[in-house]
Amino acid sequence: MDFKVREVVPHGRNYALLRMMPVKGEMPEVEPGQFVQVEIPNSKSTYLRRPISINWADRREMWLLVRRAGAGTNALCDLPEGSRLSIILPLGRGFDLSVRGNVLLVGGGVGTAPLLMLGKRLVTLGVDVKFLLGARTTSDLLQLELFKQTGETRVTTEDGSMGHRGLVTDHPLLTDGEIDHIACCGPLPMMKAVAAIARSRGISCEVSLENMMACGIGACLCCVEDTVDAGNVCVCKEGPVFNIKRLKW
User: Fold this and answer.
1) Coil, strand, or helix at residue 234?
2) In angstroms, rounded to a whole number, what is the distance separating the alpha carbons of residues 75 and 91?
3) Which of 12, 36, 178, 203 could pair with 198 in a Cys bridge, judged by C-beta atoms 3.0 to 4.6 Å apart?
4) Would you list the DSSP string of 11-76?
5) How do strand 241-243 and strand 231-234 relate by DSSP bridges?
6) Do strands 204-208 and 241-243 pair parallel, antiparallel, or not at all (unpaired)?
7) How far apart are CA 95 and CA 114, in angstroms?
């Protein structure tokens, strides 16, 4: 689908929120945790589409929260309003929406992006949702007010500039809180540490993997992950969200 960029909102020096709408028709149905493949317009060096988590979507609008990581994502963050983007969506499998009880959503850095939509959807289903968001410093805590509007939100910063000093895995809400289910997205070491805590406490847990992707449709085999039940699978098709019971972590 072709999209028109309605607004580009900088978040510090390293991030930008792209708010966009379909040029024609309505958005397809999107589940929290799914992603898109974005073509970089007018690029002479970035040939492959870039996979980006869906931050928020309804029938009229979609948000993508983008971190500057290279030429492709820099170009997206610097787009002028009114730009057009070619996007393949929705891709992958999202989070389990049947979970109930006390649900903790744990995110680090730009990995918090898909958790906003997930949290909002679970709240409409009557689930008790809490957020635990981690970052290096205060300026890397993204969309904090939107998370606070959705549910109880705790933060950690490595430098202690806001909230609990340290990593999300040091926060007592994760290590000692009453939790029935965890959904997590962020840097791989953080997700593995959260998964280890969940296993030790007997808590069900899902993680959203960010393996290197090229095609996004399971053809190139770039994003393969070795699983307990099915061997090597493509994260772009079988995931990106996996229950940790399936992972060899």
Assistant:
1) strand
2) 22
3) 203
4) ETTTEEEEEEEESSS-PPP--TT-EEEE--TT-SS--S-EEEEEEEE-SS-EEEEEE--SHHHHHH
5) unpaired
6) antiparallel
7) 9
pLDDT tens for the chain, 249 residues: list them. Answer: 999 999 999 988 899 999 999 999 999 999 999 999 999 998 878 888 999 999 999 999 999 999 999 999 999 999 999 999 999 999 999 999 999 999 999 999 999 999 999 999 999 999 999 999 999 999 999 999 999 999 999 999 999 999 999 999 999 999 999 999 999 999 999 999 999 999 999 999 999 999 999 999 999 999 999 999 999 999 999 999 999 999 999
Residues 6+ apart with CB under 8 A from 104: 130, 131, 132, 173, 174, 177, 179, 181, 182, 183
Answer for the pair 207, 194: CB distance below 8 angstroms, yes or no: yes
The label of the residue with tokens 């903790």 reads: 104
Sort 91 into a burial class: Cβ within 10 Å, 0-12 / 13-18 / 19+. Answer: buried
Q: Which amino acid is at 87?
A: I
Please list, in sequence order, all residues whose beta carbon lies within 8 angstroms of the beta carbon of residue 145, skipping any fewer than 6 positions away. Answer: none
The DSSP H or E segment spanning 147 is: helix 144-150
- Which bin fits 110, alpha (ψ -120 to 50), beta or left (φ > 0)? alpha
Residues in Cβ contact with 54 at an 8 Å cutoff, skipping those fewer than 6 apart: 30, 32, 34, 35, 36, 62, 63, 64, 89, 90, 113, 114, 117
Backbone angles phi, psi at 60, to 5 degrees: -110, -20
Two structure tokens written together for 106:
């744990």
| Per-residue buried b or exposed e for 98-111, using 16+ beta carbons within 10 Å of the residue's own CB | ebeebbbbbbbbbb
